[in-house]
Design goal:
With 183 residues, the chain is mostly helical. It has one domain. It has 9 helices and 2 strands, in the order ααααααααββα. Strands 1-2 form a two-stranded antiparallel ribbon. The longest helix is centred in the C-terminal third of the chain and has 31 residues. It is globular, with a radius of gyration of 17 Å.
Length: 183
């Protein structure tokens, strides 16, 4: 597989949210506004990229029996760094995302890529995989948040629209959103 194919598989063929159905908790929780969704996507992508690289670099050092706890500790360190950076430089986003930032530690996408890809491949390929999966996650979050914010809240990036469609209040709106994105 070429490096471009490795990157593109995360966008389309193995999109973590739309194809693999992973990471649905932050997907549903943080997609009420586009800016929140993009913030969560970028935060998760940074953690995914850094953790994939670290786990790949340490894959021959970590004993097989304790690999999952070691992965979680590495991921938790990167999540803490991202949380501190957001709290210092983008406090409004930090407040909006709340507990969901800390829950990146146990996000299935990140732990799954650590176990299935980074632990078996080199650092560069793992970085490309992490970036591709992260960008796929961002695209899925953007698509869900766009539908929820524009059609549900009648706004775009927090700016109220005069003639917004508010399908969210109807149960059909929820089903329409899921149908459009999953099938």
């Amino acid at each position: 597989m070429t490096k471009i194919q490795n990157f593109l598989k995360g966008l389309i063929k193995e999109n973590p949210v739309l194809v693999l159905i992973l990471g649905t908790c932050p997907t549903l929780a943080t997609t009420t506004q586009i800016l929140n969704a993009l913030g969560m996507g970028v935060a998760a992508t940074v953690v995914l990229l850094c953790s994939n690289m670290a786990i790949s670099a340490l894959r021959n050092v970590i004993p097989d029996k304790v690999r999952i706890p070691c992965y979680i500790v590495l991921i938790a360190g990167f999540v803490t760094a991202v949380e501190l950076l957001l709290h210092a430089f983008v406090p409004s986003l930090y407040d909006s995302l709340g507990i969901y930032l800390a829950l990146i530690v146990v996000n299935c996408i990140i732990l799954g890529r650590a176990e299935m890809y980074a632990s078996k491949n080199g650092v560069i390929d793992s970085a490309i995989d992490g970036l591709g999966m992260g960008c796929g996650f961002i695209l899925a979050l953007f698509a869900m948040s766009f539908i929820r914010e524009v059609f549900g809240a009648g706004s775009f990036c927090g700016v109220e629209q005069e003639k917004g469609l508010r399908l969210r209040r109807l149960s059909v709106g929820c089903h329409l959103r899921e149908t459009l994105l999953h099938g």
